[in-house]
Write a structure and sequence with these properties.
By secondary structure, the chain is of the alpha+beta class. It contains eight helices and eight strands. Residues 1-52 form the HTH iclR-type domain.
Length: 235
């Protein structure tokens, strides 16, 4: 990480090593690894610059930020109507990543933060995403990522998870009953892009014993998710 940061301002190994506070041989080895993976590029004369993969990652990250800012009014409206903390997360491999968060009205803050990754099997956003997939696709993800227990309420059995997802498909929203974090419950729904493919999900979360009472919370969450999807071009 510190070599990458130094690479943003320096090109020669000696300067990169000085900025990173590392020996030149160590920096040289790290740079060679970065070159192999596309994160750096050498001009053959001892100078290094950021590689194409850095630009690709930066573009993907900026795209996420653009999406979050584009739909933030929808997230804020849901928060104001419910008092719950509202999250938007985008699918990233076998996990999802929070890209936006609007704190609830109660005087506490949930541990979630923008940039934090979340498991799919134990969160309302994650289960809403999984419910858009076939059972075979879900089983493939489970085989790769496993079903680690986050709390005593976490679903750790694949068959039980598939049964839960069948219910999510019917009601069009998912629930997290202290499955990811003790004392926190959430309701989530999937978000789609202009291609009709799932790209993430939206949720409203709160502490179990301090959650504002909202009788139509699932309907409000699903409506907000649909509004986000429409804003992204989904039909």
């Amino acid at each position: 990480m510190i070599v990458l940061e130094a690479l943003a301002d320096h090109a020669r190994i000696a300067d990169i090593a000085g900025a990173a506070g590392l020996p030149k041989p160590t920096v040289h080895r790290i740079l060679q690894t970065l070159v192999q993976h596309g994160f750096a590029r050498s001009d053959g004369q001892g100078n290094y610059v950021c590689g194409p993969r850095i630009l690709s990652l930066a573009g993907r990250f900026l795209q996420r930020l653009d999406i979050a800012e584009q739909v933030r009014p929808i997230l804020r409206d849901l928060q104001q109507r419910t008092g719950w903390t509202v999250h938007l997360a985008l699918l990233s491999g076998d996990e999802a990543v929070y890209v936006a968060k609007v704190e609830g009205t109660k005087p506490y803050h949930l541990a979630s933060r923008v940039g934090m990754s979340l498991k799919l099997h134990c969160t309302s956003i994650g289960k809403a995403i999984l419910a858009t997939m076939s059972d075979d696709e879900v089983s493939e993800i489970v085989a790769r990522a496993g079903l680690p227990a986050r709390t005593e309420n976490t679903i750790t059995d694949a068959r039980t998870l598939l049964g839960e997802l069948a219910a999510v498909r019917t009601r069009r929203y998912a629930e997290d009953h202290e499955e990811n974090e003790a004392g926190v419950r959430a309701v989530g729904a999937a978000v789609f892009d202009h291609t009709g493919g799932v790209i993430g999900g939206l949720s409203a979360a709160a502490l179990v014993h301090l959650a504002p009472v909202v009788e139509d919370l699932p309907a409000q969450v699903t409506a907000a998710a649909e509004a986000v999807s429409k804003a992204l071009g989904a039909h």
